[in-house]
Amino acid sequence: MKSVVDLKGVVKEYAGGVRALDGIDLAVGEGELVGIVGPSGSGKSTLLHIVGTLDRPTSGTVAIAGHDIAALTDRRLSALRARHIGFVFQAFHLVPGVAALDNVAEGLLYSGLPRARRRRMAADALARVGLADRVRHRPHELSGGQKQRVAIARAVVGEPALLLADEPTGALDSASGEAVMELLHTLNEEGATIAVITHDTEIAARLPRQVRIRDGRVVADTAHGKVMAR
Ligand SMILES: Nc1ncnc2c1ncn2[C@@H]1O[C@H](COP(=O)(O)OP(=O)(O)OP(=O)(O)O)[C@@H](O)[C@H]1O
Ligand SMILES: [Mg+2]
Asked: What is the DSSP letter of 132?
């Protein structure tokens, strides 16, 4: 299986001496759907930032879609990120006052595609997340669950190799959260490789693979037959 993510001995120390990641080895293969779980402060978001190339490790190696990120300049790294990675956050991060269609099209800003093409692809992505009838709605005219589906459409519109989601259901009621998770499962069945952070043990239990982090280390990984430590 081809690795989309390959981390070896990754350490991340923040200024002030916090060792947020303390030697992470993690490989995610093409087409996997991985849940990242663990207590608050255990390093989950830090890990997602490193995997998403938003940040570089203090030591260790990070390869994304076969590219060793240490070998890339910041400029090339942003290009790799724009091409290969989609992000979804707990707080949606949509542009206020801008229609859903344009929020999604923004996900293709660095693709070099002409605007009309970007908007057509954005309309398709919104249809995929079940919002074909909401393309003109601005964020404040959408429900929380719909906002998150717009954010997911924006993350997947460029068909990234990897979709990263940090607590995508954290701000949603359980029904909307359920719909968002169903959508992630569907996108995964269609071929997307996804890593999703969640606090929700029920949501995590339904994911095909769960990686548990504690104190910046992987303490359990169901892919390696380790029993989940509680
Ligand atoms: N920019 C930063 N500068 C210094 N320390 C940081 C920074 N970001 C995170 N930390 C520290 O690194 C550790 C891991 O933080 P991280 O945000 O990765 O945790 P988390 O597992 O995502 O927690 P939560 O479930 O609460 O979101 C924490 O102890 C945190 O205080
Ligand atoms: Mg976090």
From this structure: G
CATH class label, 32-44+73-224: alpha beta
Q: Let me know the angle formed at the C-alpha of 91 by 138 and 133, rounded to the nearest 5 degrees.
A: 30
Pocket test for ligand 1, best of 40, 46, 212, 217 (most atoms within 8 A of CB): 46
Q: What is the pLDDT of residues 17-53, one digit of tens each?
A: 999 999 999 999 999 999 999 999 999 999 999 999 9
Report pTM. 0.93
- Entry field: residues in the chain: 230
Which residue from 11, 13, 14 has its CB within 8 A of the most atoms of ligand 1, so it is best to mutate? 14
Phi, psi (deg, nearest 5) at residue 30: -55, 130
